[in-house]
Amino acid sequence: MNAESKQPGDATESATPDPTDPGYERHLERSRTMWNRWSDWYTMSERDFEPIREAAIDRLGLESGDRVLEIGCGPGVNFALVREAIGETGRLVAIDYSPEMVAKARDRIERHGWDNVEVHCADATRVDIEGSFDAAVATLSMSIMPDVRAAVGNVHRHLESGKSFVVFDLRPVPEGPARIANPFLRWFLRWYANWNPDGDVLASLRAVFTECTVGETYAAGTAYTVHCRKSVSPEE
Ligand SMILES: C[S@@+](CC[C@H](N)C(=O)[O-])C[C@H]1O[C@@H](n2cnc3c(N)ncnc32)[C@H](O)[C@@H]1O
Q1: Which residue stretches belong to region Disordered (predicted)?
Q2: Could you tell me which residues are beta bridge partners of residue 224?
Q3: C-alpha distance from residue 57 to each of 51, 80, 98, 113 (Å)
Q4: Would you state the pLDDT for residue 235?
Q5: Intra-chain end-to-end CA distance of the chain, in Å
């Protein structure tokens, strides 16, 4: 494990996806097909990264009553952890683009009787949700977005000043001789998860958020968490 910290100055910059880009829609539709298919098998692997998920959600510093936004929630693997932290008075709004994943997430909500957890079937890059949030989280999903930079901008827009966005994601080996495995890793992530080869999650986070700290890294740096905080404007 290691840690690094970065403080770029540009916190207000944001990007909107180009609706005329045919690659955007192609990527999105491939995600829908792929994740609909995986939704039937996801329970077999959903506990694989449990300690990393717990550490990521812990970094949000959630309190009872907080409003939380989750990006690419899949079948709701993180719901219990978030719900436990925000209690009955908080609100969890989760977004996923795959209708099958959303159906499974809604089943989970119904089974537990969580009436303050809701799931929307939408493209997290473009979705506009009413209200703002005290925290946002994305686990294993930002690197799949059709326009990673715009997706980060959209989360930033929905977050209250001074509040956190925590990301847990996968990437090619960042340094050292193990980078020899990267061509295979890129191919595998694209084949398995519709990973976006043109999106750099860390660079996108750093371009949008003033404070951006890489926390724990695992498996030669291929699995990592990042804690970002939205800056507070001077007049606040
Ligand atoms: C690897 S799964 C991660 C699920 C869950 N967050 C977890 O940690 O297990 C990626 C999820 O991102 C969703 N996804 C992909 N593109 C999306 C988009 N543009 N907007 C919202 N969700 C998206 C997929 O449907 C899929 O459920």
Answers
A1: 1-27
A2: 169, 217
A3: 10, 11, 23, 21
A4: 67
A5: 36
In this predicted structure, what is the pLDDT of residue 216? 85
Total tally of structural domains belonging to the chain = 1
- Full-model pTM: 0.90
Q: Please give the pLDDT value at position 49.
A: 86
Residue 215 belongs to some domain of the structure: yes
If you measure from the C-alpha of residue 46 to the centroid of ligand 1, how many angstroms do you get, rounded to a whole number? 12
Listing from the earlier edge strand, what are the strands of the sheet with 117-121?
4-6, 211-218, 223-229, 159-170, 133-139, 67-71, 91-96, 117-121
Residue type present at position 218 = Y
**Mean pLDDT value of segment 69-77:** 97
Is 145 part of any domain? yes
Q: Are 139 and 211 in contact (CB under 8 A)?
A: no
116, part of any domain:
yes
Does 165 reside within a domain? yes
Show the domain range for 122. 4-229
| Residue to substitute in 32, 82, 97, 139 for testing ligand 1 pocket (most ligand atoms within 8 angstroms of CB) | 97
CATH of the domain at 135: 3.40.50.150
CA distance 203 to 198: 11
Nearest CA to ligand 1 atom 4: 74
